[in-house]
Amino acid sequence: MRRCCCGSRGQGSELVAAAAALTTVMAQGKTAEELELLAALFEIIGDNLGLLALKAPSVEDCCPKEENSQGRCT
Known about the structure:
Layout: H1 12-27, H2 32-55, H3 59-62, H4 65-69
């Protein structure tokens, strides 16, 4: 059986919850200026990840719809 990179499936809500929890922990004891700096840093990281995603293989590249629908991708 061929392995493929079909990405995360249905994990969006878990990711949002984890990000909210991490944000709360990271913000404890920080000044407004420190929080602004962290926000800017993560905005830059997010932008860079978005640019890298343009070059990353898509789900269709790794796992054609025909194979995925037939359960061949794991």
